UniProtKB/TrEMBL annotation:
It comes from Vibrio barjaei. This is Slipin family protein. Residues 26-183 form the Band domain. Belongs to the band 7/mec-2 family. CDD domains: SPFH_eoslipins_u1 (cd08826).
Length: 261
């Protein structure tokens, strides 16, 4: 039959070469190290081949290539209402790869789109169960929770989710101002607590010092003189310094004794 076609000039040598090259390219496939080929025989799953050179019979067998490298997928910003009724916009990034080529091709139509939609719904669901402060302070815990849920739900698709990272938690201007006021009030509260603690510790030390000075009256006099020395170093024209008269009793008694002598 082919000889008759050739003799009648219907199939030229150039056409034969083109046909041979087409059959060769359809017959031989080269898969890279990170690729696998899911082979179907007359529409039924047959095997997973690769990497390297594989042979696929045209029209009888079909091959679908699958990339096994880690995919970095950006999850679009999602509107989330936290448990304390605060509206925020959150976006994230997920890292996943195909670990079972057969499941990734047969069990789901498009594993990339399916993983993206699952990541968006899971992100809204998980973050909606937490308060705003937890979103801002406990990102590692939220990342682990989202990663565990995605990994479990995508296991039937042959997908392994290795990591999830929340990138941004965007707040509106009014909420930013409210958080700033809250932070300022917290700093003022801490300053007052620290000041009160210092006053309490100082009062304890003053009581201890007073008890020691009460044993020796001249100790208080020395303390007054030391304070005068410190004030004298300042540039002040007039110094009014009270001094109890009992501290001068020793001096007056000494003068009386000298006059009697």
């Amino acid at each position: 039959m082919i000889e008759q076609v050739i003799t009648h000039g219907l199939l030229t040598p150039v056409a034969l070469i083109v046909l041979a090259l087409f059959v060769a390219f359809s017959l031989f496939h080269i898969l890279r190290e990170y690729e696998r080929g899911v082979v179907f025989f007359l529409g039924r799953f047959q095997t997973v081949k690769g990497p390297g050179l594989i042979i696929v019979i045209p029209l009888i067998q079909q091959i679908v290539k699958v990339d096994l490298r880690t995919v970095v997928m950006d999850v679009p910003s999602q509107d989330v209402i936290s448990r304390d009724n605060v509206s925020v916009r959150v976006n994230a990034v997920i890292y996943f790869r195909v670990v079972d080529s057969q499941k990734a091709i047969i069990n789901v139509e498009d594993y990339m789109a399916a993983t993206s939609q699952l990541a968006q719904t899971t992100l809204r669901s998980v973050l909606g169960q937490h308060e705003l402060d937890e979103m801002l302070a406990n990102r590692d815990m939220l990342n682990a929770d989202i990663q565990a849920i995605l990994d479990a739900r995508s296991d039937g698709w042959g997908i392994k989710v290795s990591n999830v990272e929340i990138k941004h938690v965007d707040l509106n201007e009014s909420m930013i101002r409210a958080i700033a006021k809250q932070a300022e009030a917290e700093r003022v509260r801490r300053a007052k607590v620290i000041h009160a603690s210092g006053e309490m510790e100082a009062s304890d030390k003053l009581v201890e010092a007073a008890s020691k000075m009460s044993v020796e009256p001249n100790a208080m006099l020395l303390r007054y003189l030391q304070t005068l020395t410190e004030i004298a170093g300042e540039k002040s024209s007039t110094i009014l310094f009270p001094m109890p008269m009992e501290y001068l009793d020793g001096l007056f008694n000494k003068k009386d004794k000298d006059s009697k002598k």
